[in-house]
Amino acid sequence: FFFFFFFFQAEDGIRDAQESRGLGDVYKRQVVSTQSTGGRELMRLLALMLAAATVAHGSRCSIGWGSVTCKYDKAVFKNRAVYFQTPVGEAPGDGWPVVLNFHGWYLDGISAFVSSSSDEYGLFNKALATMALLDAGYAVVAPSASQKNMDAWETNAPPYSTDLSAWSKSQDAAYLEKLFTAMADGGLGDGCCNMKDMHAIGFSSGGYMTSRMAFSYQGKFRSLAIESASLYYCAGSGCPDPTAQDVPGLQEHPPTLLLHGTDDPIVPASTSAKYRQILEQYNIEVARYTMAGAGHQWIEKAPELILDWVSKHSLQQSLFSEWRAAPRPPVLSTDPTFRYNNNENAHLLY
What we know:
With 350 residues, the chain is an alpha/beta fold.
C-alpha cells in the first residue's frame, strides 16, 4: 500500500502567495479530483465504519464500502428541490436545531445525503458532515440552486454582488423565503425546525451563499461554516474589499469557521484568509483551518470541525455534550497529528 498524509494547521501557519485581485470567473477553470487511494483510503473507511457502528442514539445514515447514504425527504419550492432530514428520536420542545447546507456549482442538495469516496470535490466528507450533524441532534436542510443558473447560487453574480439591496429581487431570495416559511411552520418533518437555532454551511458557490446569510439575513443564523469560498460577493481570485453597504453585516456577522485547501486552483486560499482578517477587524469570532496540499474540495476534517463549531454556538449544546460523552472505542486515524480522546478531545473522527 502507498500512504499519503495531509497535515492540517491553523491559518497562522500559512503564508499566502498573494492577495486576490479583481473579479474573476471561478467557473471556467478545470476541476482537479482529489481522491484518496490505496491503504490510506482503506484505513479511513475502516475507521469511519467503526465510528458509525458505535453511535449511541441511532442514525439515519449508513456507511458502505466507500459510500455514505443518509435517508432523506424531498420537497419542492419555486420549482426547486430541497432535501432534508431530522435526527432519530423525539425533538426538543422548541424543535430540532437546524443546519442549512448550500451545495457547490453543478451540484444539488442531494449531495449532502448521498456520496461515495470516488466523487470529486471531497463530497464524501460533505455527506459525512451530514451524518455527524444528524447523529448529534441537528436537522439538515439542503436547498438546491436553479438549474437555469447552472446550479450556482446568485449571490456573487451582478447586480447582487455589487448592490446588497438588490438581493430581495433575486430568484434565490424568493426561493429561500418559501423555504424559511416551511421550516418555521413544520413543513420539513417532525420537529423541524427551531428557527432560533439555525446555522449554515456551504462549499464553493454554496460557501459564498453561506456568507450571504450574514449580510442579507442578519440575526437569523447563530453560526456559519464556509468551505473553499469567501465573502458573498467574491468569485475565485476576485475578492475586493467590502464597501460601506457591507458594514452592518460585518458588525453583526455570526461566528464563522473557514475551511480551505492550500492548493485550491479555483478559489485561492488567500481569499478566505482575507475574510478572516476582515472579521477579526470587526471583533467577530472566527477560526480558519487549512489542509496542506488539498485542492478545491471538502477537506477531510470538515465533518468533525463543522460539528464542533455548530455545537459550540447552538442553543442545544447539551444534546451534543450527551452524545459526545457516550462511550466509544478508540478509532483509527490516518492523520498522524490527530489523537482521539473521548473525554478531552472535542474533535470526533468520522
